[in-house]
Every structure is written in structure tokens, then in C-alpha cells.
């Protein structure tokens, strides 16, 4: 990508990308993420927090697993929502997550029923996007 100097200056002041880490979003991880943000920005001005992937930060030690509705709900409430509340409570959260391996027909007919893991995840979001890629197609489905 090519950006002009003005855009690069804005990007450097407003975008933080952490390298792939083994950071868990446990109680300590929530504080670490807040500290990473606070090093570069006023945490109250954060507009979007993107977590890629949910499975990569899920605390399997504390929660039974991503297939448990109660565990997923507690993780989303106690970790993801806590991160939002200690930064900017009105910021958006983007979570990336995987779908189950399903047929194309199932994905087209019920795309948002094919998230991997607990159904509590489906009741938590306000909008969703599924990016579907195969050898012959590249589609984006929006809910």
C-alpha cells in the first residue's frame, strides 16, 4: 500500500497493531492490552478494538472451552466487555472467529449458525460478516 505523508502521520498517531503474541485475554491480559493502548493513545478516545482471533486469546485455563455457552458468555462479558469498559465504553469491538467446516449449501442457507463454538457468541454481537472463500468463489455475507 502507498500512503501519502499526511495519511502516514495520521495512521502513526491513531493505529496500534500488536504483533502476533501469545497474550491471553485473562484478567492480566486485559490490563496488558489497556497498557499497550495507553502507551500510544488516550484510552478514552479508542474507537475500535479488533481481536484476531477469538480462539487465540480465549483463556482455556479459566473457561471450560469455547463450546460451553456459559464459559463463552462469561469470557465475552468478563474479558471483552471489561476491556471495552476500561477504555472507551462506546467503542466498537471486532472479533474474528472461525466457522465450522460445513457444506456450501449450509453456509449460504444459515451462515451465522455456523460459527465454531458456543451459540452464546451469536447472541452477543450486533452485526456480523462472514467471508467465504472457495476455489471458485469469494463471497461476503452480512447480518
Give the overall silhouette.
globular
Distance between the termini: 29 Å
Tally the structural domains. Answer: 1
Taking all Cα atoms into account, the compactness measure Rg is: 17 Å
Average pLDDT confidence is: 84
Number of E-state strands: 4
Order of helices and strands: HHEHHEHHEE
State the strand order across the main sheet.
1-2
Would you kindly provide a written description of the structure presented here, covering whatever features stand out?
With 143 residues, this protein is α+β, with helices and mostly antiparallel strands. The chain has one domain. The chain is 40% helix and 13% strand. The chain is built from six helices and four strands. The chain has helices at 5-14, 27-40, 54-57, 69-86, 104-109, 120-124; strands at residues 48-51, 92-95, 129-133, 138-142. A two-stranded parallel ribbon has the order 1-2. A two-stranded antiparallel sheet has the order 3-4. Strand 3 and strand 4 (138-142) form a beta hairpin. Helix 2 (27-40) runs parallel beside helix 4 (69-86). It is globular and about 45 Å long. The model has no long low-confidence stretch (mean pLDDT 84).
Amino acid at each position: 500500500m502507498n500512503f501519502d505523508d499526511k495519511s502516514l502521520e495520521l495512521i502513526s498517531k491513531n493505529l496500534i497493531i500488536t504483533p502476533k503474541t501469545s497474550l491471553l485475554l485473562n484478567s492480566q491480559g486485559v490490563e496488558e492490552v489497556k497498557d499497550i493502548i495507553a502507551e500510544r493513545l488516550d484510552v478514552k478516545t479508542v474507537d475500535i478494538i479488533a481481536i484476531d482471533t477469538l480462539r487465540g486469546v480465549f483463556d482455556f485455563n479459566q473457561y471450560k472451552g469455547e463450546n460451553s455457552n456459559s464459559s463463552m458468555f462469561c469470557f465475552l462479558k468478563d474479558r471483552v466487555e471489561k476491556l471495552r469498559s476500561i477504555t472507551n465504553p462506546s467503542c466498537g469491538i471486532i472479533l474474528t472467529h472461525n466457522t465450522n467446516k460445513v457444506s456450501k449449501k449450509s453456509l449460504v442457507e444459515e451462515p451465522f449458525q455456523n460459527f465454531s463454538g458456543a451459540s452464546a457468541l451469536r447472541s452477543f454481537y450486533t452485526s456480523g460478516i462472514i467471508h467465504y472463500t472457495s476455489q471458485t468463489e469469494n463471497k461476503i455475507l452480512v447480518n
